[in-house]
Write a structure and sequence with these properties.
The protein is built from 5 helices and 4 strands; from the N terminus they run αααααββββ. By secondary structure, it is mainly alpha-helical. The strands form 2 sheets. It has a two-stranded antiparallel sheet with strand order 1-4. A two-stranded antiparallel ribbon has the order 2-3. Strand 2 and strand 3 form a beta hairpin. Helix 1 packs antiparallel against helix 2. The longest helix has 32 residues, at 29-60. It is flat and about 60 Å long. It starts with a helix and ends with a strand. 1% of the residues are buried. The mean pLDDT is 78.
């Protein structure tokens, strides 16, 4: 089974290479297209919500923006390079922490999964009965 995108593309190419008109396979061009669109739309929404929240976070907390902009953390990683790679994140713990905080605060999954309480709970003066359904998007 092919789960990663590069594996799905490889499986698709391999399947198409040996496929004849009489072969029946569930792996089709339409399935590949829908998988790619699904990955793209999911990533686009999450990225834009994280960036928006990050920008709003910086506007309300300028000391954090200043610490990122004027720290040597990014400069040290960029030394001699034009751009930062995914692997460089390990050398920028403060920047990574700010990104994670932006994702935590952001509404990256507006229609997220429902949750339920496992016991009677009280939160900020509200009584929430056991097994009550909680919607994280509201």
């Amino acid at each position: 089974m092919c789960l990663k995108l590069e594996n799905r593309l490889h499986c698709f190419a391999k399947t198409c290479a040996g496929k004849t008109a009489h072969d029946s396979t569930s792996f089709s061009t339409e399935e590949l297209l829908m998988s790619c669109l699904s990955l793209h739309s999911g990533g686009t929404d999450t990225t834009s919500n994280t960036l928006l929240t990050g920008f709003l976070y910086f506007m309300t907390k300028p000391h954090i923006q200043g610490k990122i902009m004027f720290s040597s953390e990014i400069d040290q990683v960029l030394e001699g390079k034009d751009f930062v790679t995914f692997e460089d994140r390990h050398y920028m713990p403060y920047v990574q922490a700010v990104v994670h905080e932006s994702q935590r605060v952001a509404n990256t999954v507006p229609l997220g999964l429902y949750h339920s309480t496992t016991r009677d709970t009280e939160l900020m003066g509200y009584s929430i009965p056991k097994w009550d359904i909680l919607d994280s998007s509201s």
